[in-house]
Amino acid sequence: MAKRSTLPKYVSEEVDRKTGKVYVYFRRRGRAKVRMTDPPHSEAFNAHYCQLLQGTPTLEPVDRKCESVGTFGWLVVQYYGSAEFRRLDARTQRVRRQIVDSILAESVPGGDERRGTYSSVSLAKFTGKAVRALRDRKATGADGSPTPSAANSRLKALRQVFAYGVDAQVHGSLQSNPARDVRYLPPMRPDGIPAWTDWDVSRFRRTHPPGTMAHLALLLFLEFGQRISDVHRLGADMVHDDSITFTQWKNRQRKPVTLTLPIGAELLAALAGVPNERKTFLVNDHGRPFPSANSFGNQFRIWCKKAGLEGRSAHGLRKYFSAHLAELGATDREIMAFTGHRNAKEVDRYTRSANQRRLARAFHERMAANKSEGDPNMN
Fold first, then answer.
1. Rounded CA gap, 285 and 283, in Å?
2. Three-class secondary structure assignment of 147-161
3. Residue 359: C-alpha distances to residues 97, 125, 263, 333, 362 (Å)
4. 3-state SS of 173-218?
5. Which residue from 31, 84, 95, 151 could staple onto 139, CB 3.0 to 4.6 Å apart?
């Protein structure tokens, strides 16, 4: 029976035919063969092996226990095991890992095979310039189109990792956050996802009449102005005395926001027809609650497409709700009482155009009234 190799995966020994010496190589499909000069299973060998694995484009999970102390890869290991990371919800953790792991596997410009990935970069040498370079690598897509959201998501993840390292004082060489002063790239659309219009809402209503699941979903969005992650979770057990009380799903573990909102007559009438055994008001074609915000979002886009509303989304309805309140004269605080925002910055972005229309209309009416009263300054 052939002796089983004790070398790790992708590592093999080769005998030089001329000299008879045995050399050890790391060989993997799609990569150049790399000679490993340190004794197998030594500390240096293990560190080199980990770096070679992390440098592959497949981003498959690797054992990061062999990260060298004081490197970026070592900091990431500490961050993944921290209370700060564990407090994130499962989806945020998964997305954060994907972003950070992709950084670990990327090659440092000018680096060699042994220390050519960002995983092996010393924390003392991880500067704002390096962070900016990593941000800019995601600033354009494969087709050359601008992708500022991807770049900013990468920058946000780096800020969080380094902020943990500084606060926890994990290593003496990390005295400040190198990502803190790197700016986010401006978005392609400064006002974000477009808000719905009255015409959009009217067309959706005509396509999906009362009694349909799509119509009920629309009423829930128009009544409460909540995110898609909240709307699909609303249920009868949250309703008391013609009001509904729930904790918003976003930031529920770090900065929970609990809202109690009134329910209008039209929605109350629609909810009266919902079977008592339903756990949530909205269910899929199998009569079960939507398993995730993504699945409900996909269904809502199908309803929009059926109504001929291309490019419309549930988040656009949240903006429509806020803009409608602004046009009715609601203050930022009153709008925030519905949307759950903690500051007026986001609300202002939602309602800027609505406030402009309202103010222009109010001044126009005042000007017309002055004209009718014979104000000489208005002639």
1. 7
2. CHHHHHHHHHHHHHH
3. 46, 53, 29, 18, 5
4. CCCCCCCCCCCCCCCCCCCCCCCCCHHHHHHHHHHCCCCCHHHHHH
5. 151
